[in-house]
Design goal:
Blueprint lengths: L1 H16 L3 E2 L4 E2 L6 E2 L4 E8 L3 E3 L6 E9 L4 E4 L4 E4 L5 E3 L2 E5 L6 E5 L12 E3 L7 E2 L5 E3 L2 E3 L1 E4 L7 E6 L4 E3 L2 E3 L4 E6 L6 E4 L2 E3 L2 E4 L3 E4 L1 E4 L2 E3 L2 E5 L3 E4 L2 E3 L2 E3 L2 E4 L6 E3 L3 E4 L2 E3 L2 E3 L2 E4 L5 E3 L3 E4 L2 E3 L2 E3 L2 E4 L5 E3 L3 E4 L2 E3 L2 E3 L2 E2 L6 E4 L2 E3 L2 E3 L2 E4 L3 E4 L2 E3 L2 E3 L2 E5 L3 E5 L2 E3 L2 E3 L2 E2 L7 E7 L2 E3 L2 E3 L4 E5 L5 E2 L10 H6 L1 E2 L10 E2 L17 E8 L2 E7 L9 E7 L19 E4 L3 E4 L7 E8 L12 E3 L11
Parallel strand pairs: 4-6, 5-7, 6-8, 6-9, 7-10, 8-11, 9-12, 10-15, 11-16, 12-17, 15-18, 16-19, 17-20, 18-21, 19-22, 20-24, 21-25, 22-26, 23-27, 24-28, 25-29, 26-30, 27-31, 28-33, 29-34, 30-35, 31-36, 32-37, 33-38, 34-39, 35-40, 36-41, 37-42, 38-43, 39-44, 40-45, 41-46, 43-47, 44-48, 45-49, ...
Antiparallel strand pairs: 1-4, 2-3, 13-14, 66-67, 67-70, 68-69, 68-71, 71-72
């Protein structure tokens, strides 16, 4: 009896899964009697109980019923194969899937609907019994389940991810995963066998958490993640217990009018217990328009994580309505380390245009050109802020450079050239609410004060550099008890005579230019110092605004041009196109500052004037 049932099951499998090529009946043209052969395809569905190969010769494959690769069985898909799924169908891998396309012949997993839309089919799912990918010592693939040079599109209906793993670790490499109604990749590995997700293009996907990639116990490396969105957390990437490194994360977001006490966290990246390093995170955002919504981290939200050596630019956090908690246009971090990042051009209408930090270490970052209500560059509470460059940020309420609360250390920072959007407001480059140790900082050129004391207690603020050696001038740039007796004193005496050599070198201020023909006559303010000599470098470029500046062809040489201790210089041989110029300073130790403000010449077209 058992043998009979097994034979019947085998016949059913053969009928569904063997390469059964179906030809549509030839069509006879009533007009001329000609015969037109319809294209071939292969229908598949049901269990695969022995090793099988889907070949290019029998492509496309139409999934008419859910396909299940049994444990211990391998399904191999050849390069160039197209797999089309009927409505709500899926491919589940309990064994091994080897789908290795190549650049010229990718494998495609797509919808079988006449007009394809997100969510037409379900997904490719790897269960916990599937065979994990294995690697050699150089992390080269040597065996196990793999998706390589594949396209996965229009899936995700009612599932966690278009590609989904459940305590499984396939390799996902050089794939394009786009336009799915779920996370493009929903990866749940294990601490013993993290999933490797590398070199993929993930775009146009939507999920509640992790619009592009949801990663738990994963390595997310070298991917381009763009135009994804999330309903609540992680517009581009949601990462838990994972490493997120060397990705480009751009144009992702979280937007909505949520219900009471919802969250919008991490327009680009949400990270928990993770390492986020070496990524470019730009143009992401969180937008909220509801009561009691918690919105944090337009670019990156980090909890108990390390955020290091990232470029975070042009991200935004916008929250409107009543009783909304919001912070961190570029980065929001809680109980984390935020170190050596370049954070520029981010914005929020709440706190921390560049970085908002709660119980963190914020060290060695360059924070420039950000804007916020409070803390244009940094808003930090119960956090140590050490050795950062904070320049050219703006705020409307408190702390154009930094809003600092608590009693942690504020040491060896350079806070220069930050401005108040409202000239009449009492706004300092640093606004202090608390009693920190406030020493060895370079503080000058901020408007309309360098430091504003908000709290009632006195603050130890000795051994800082103020851009001057005149006590009366320093006092004029500090707003404290001497201006309002309800506030504490900043005890700034003794102060130092030159910029602190252990703080970042201050950048030049007020770069000016006069463009004539192919030349730019430049001038800038010298670094104020009584004894320390500073040199300067002129950087230029012609293809785009902002660093890095890799210009070539000027008479004086390629960018940068070292001009010694001069504060006036003519750069010639620039041609007639657009050009962008900035200046840095370097000290006697050879340490170089961040860039000055940028000056530019626009390429002229007739009849309009356009930026190149």
């Amino acid at each position: 009896m058992f043998a009979s049932k097994l034979a019947h099951a085998h016949r059913r499998v053969v009928g569904l899964m063997v390469a059964l090529t179906v030809f549509l009946s030839p069509l006879l043209s009533a007009a001329n009697g000609s015969v037109r052969a319809a294209p071939a395809y292969t229908e598949v569905g049901g269990p695969i109980i022995s090793d099988a190969t889907w070949t290019l010769a029998n492509s496309p494959y139409i999934v008419v019923a859910n396909v299940e690769v049994w444990q211990g069985v391998t399904l191999t898909i050849q390069p160039g194969v197209v797999v089309k799924f009927n409505k709500d169908k899926l491919l589940q891998v309990n064994g091994t899937l080897i789908a290795r396309g190549n650049v010229a012949n990718p494998i495609t997993f797509t919808s079988n609907q006449a007009s394809s839309t997100k969510g037409d089919w379900k997904n490719i799912k790897f269960t916990d019994s599937s065979t994990d990918a294995t690697f050699d010592g150089a992390v080269n693939y040597i065996g196990g389940s793999i998706l390589e040079y594949c396209m996965v599109e229009y899936g995700g209906n009612g599932v966690g991810g278009a590609v989904q793993t459940d305590q499984a670790s396939p390799l996902i490499d050089h794939c394009t995963i786009r336009d799915n109604l779920s996370s493009g990749i929903h990866a749940a590995g294990t601490s013993c066998t993290p999933i490797v997700i590398r070199n993929n293009i993930v775009s146009g996907n939507w999920a509640h958490y992790g619009g592009g990639i949801y990663a738990s116990n994963s390595t997310v490396m070298g991917n381009s993640i763009s135009r994804n969105s999330a309903g609540e957390i992680g517009g581009g990437i949601y990462a838990s217990d994972s490493t997120v490194t060397s990705n480009i994360v751009s144009g992702n977001g979280i937007a909505g009018a949520w219900s009471y006490e919802a969250s919008g966290l991490g327009g680009g990246i949400y990270a928990s217990n993770s390492t986020v390093t070496g990524n470019v995170v730009r143009g992401n955002g969180v937008t909220a328009s509801s009561l009691h919504v918690y919105t944090f981290g337009g670019g990156i939200y980090a909890s108990t994580s390390t955020v290091m050596s990232n470029i975070v630019s042009g991200n935004s956090l916008t929250a409107t309505g009543g009783a909304i908690y919001a912070a961190g246009g570029g980065i929001y971090a809680v109980t984390s380390t935020v170190m050596s990042n370049t954070v520029s051009g981010n914005s929020t209408n709440h706190g921390g245009g560049g970085i908002a930090a709660d119980s963190c270490a914020v060290a060695g970052n360059t924070i420039s050109g950000n804007s916020a209500r409070d803390g244009g560059g940094i808003s930090a509470g119960s956090s140590a802020v050490i050795s950062n460059t904070v320049v050219a940020n703006t705020a409307t309420d408190q702390g154009s450079g930094v809003y600092f609360s608590g009693s942690d250390d504020f040491l060896y920072n350079t806070v220069v050239g930050n401005t108040a959007i409202s000239p009449a407001a009492i706004i300092g480059g640093v606004a202090i609410e608390g009693a920190p140790q406030f020493h060895h900082n370079n503080l000058y050129g901020n408007a309309n004060y360098d430091v504003v004391v908000l709290s009632s207690q006195d603050i130890s603020g000795t051994h800082n550099y103020w851009g001057t050696v005149a006590t009366v001038d320093i006092l004029a740039h500090v707003y404290d008890w001497y201006d309002n007796s309800a506030r504490g004193r900043l005890l700034f005496i003794p102060y130092i005579q030159d910029p602190d050599p252990n703080a970042p070198a201050p950048p030049p201020q007020k770069l000016r230019a006069n463009f004539t023909g192919g030349s730019a006559s430049l001038s800038w303010d010298a670094i104020p110092s009584t004894t320390t000599g500073y040199g300067y470098k002129v950087y230029y470029d012609s293809d785009a605004s902002g660093p890095p500046y890799h210009g070539t062809g000027a008479t004086q040489g390629d960018s940068p041009v070292d001009v010694g201790n001069a504060t006036q210089f003519t750069l010639s041989g620039l041609g007639g196109g657009g050009v962008y110029i900035a200046v840095t300073a370097y000290d006697t130790q050879g340490r170089e500052s961040w860039y000055s403000n940028e000056v530019s010449r626009w390429r002229t077209y007739l009849p309009a004037v356009l930026k190149r």
